[in-house]
């Protein structure tokens, strides 16, 4: 935890309440210990491949959100909350192993992806191993928690299948994209909020609000990443602009832009992954000067407003204030 001018930064998120920041920081350390302990195997190679991404770090946003949601309830420091947070992160990590195989990725979190360091079979099996251990942890939380994680597994797979299949004839491309993001990203973050509220003793209406908030904010984070990839120069975002263009990923600003009259040249450029720097620059210029980017920002603002509405169900407390700040952060980071 880092402190500066009354702001406490934990895992990339700023908190103004020192007690809340300390609770989240302490909880994340407990989650980290559990992650490392849980994937230990009698077969050393399995332990090595499982720790590959765990040790690579990451912001741990999903366990952080689980812990933060739990601070709404009367038992925010419950061991069950830590167990749930670790289970959610294991599911997330498992999907990354599988995603890298499907995308033929070469890097993940600054290190070689598992499919490159070893091979596709090892990466797939490691993901399966993490899914298994996530399920084992959730089994200790009771049958309702098992049902919730099973429903989440189904949503994750459905989102991946929906993305792989693409929009059908007559489907709206924007609606299809948002459905994919809600399932692939929003569903697991929604479960993180639901678990945090449930295992800290929140009443059902607050658990439901945290669940809905998680799905909305999870989707909004992806949309904000879409905007940043196009709008932000590398020196301010820390990311190379146009990464989605190079990978052939059609994001929300692109889909909006393709609806505009006279988008023929952009449609030609986006027909396949772009490999030449000059063509990436041309596509970025078209996207930055068109209306698609502004429409994506409007969608993001609507999502942030919908997320803040869900917070009205929650009691006034530092954790609710932190969740409200999170909605502002999602929008502000695209500026």
TrEMBL record:
Protein name (database record): Polyprenyl synthetase family protein
Cofactor section: Mg(2+)
Coiled coil, from the record: none
Magnesium recorded as keyword: yes
Species whose genome carries this gene: Pseudonocardia eucalypti
InterPro entries, A to Z: Isoprenoid_synthase_dom_sf, Polyprenyl_synt, Polyprenyl_synt_CS
UniProtKB keywords: Magnesium, Metal-binding, Transferase
Family under the similarity heading: Belongs to the FPP/GGPP synthase family.
Organism domain of life: Bacteria
